[in-house]
Amino acid sequence: MKNNIKVERAIKNITQEDLSKLIGVSRQTINAMELNKYVPSTVLSLKIARIFGKHVEEIFFLEKND
Q: pTM for this one?
């Protein structure tokens, strides 16, 4: 699964630290998600989508091999 969290953060002008505090995880978790090394839970995905004012599918998307 891929995501565009980094792009959405840039649009909103918020840091990894800012986002991590807003959703209650560590900055390292945000970094791991952006590097596609960590797949967030449904709850975490929904929280991120809410922060950016988007649908989950606009932020997270499956690759062909998923």
A: 0.91
Give dist(CA 1, CA 61) in Å, integer. 6
Structure-token match 């891929």, residue found: 2
- Token couple for 53: 């004012």
Distance of CA 24 to the CA centre of its chain: 12
| Other residues' Cβ atoms within 10 Å of the Cβ of residue 30 | 25
Could you give the 3-state DSSP secondary structure of residue 57? helix
Segment 11-57, tens digit of pLDDT: 999 999 999 999 999 999 999 999 999 999 999 999 999 999 999 99
pLDDT of residue 66: 85
CA separation for the pair 66, 23 (Å, rounded): 26
Q: Closest by alpha carbon to 1, among 61, 49, 47?
A: 61
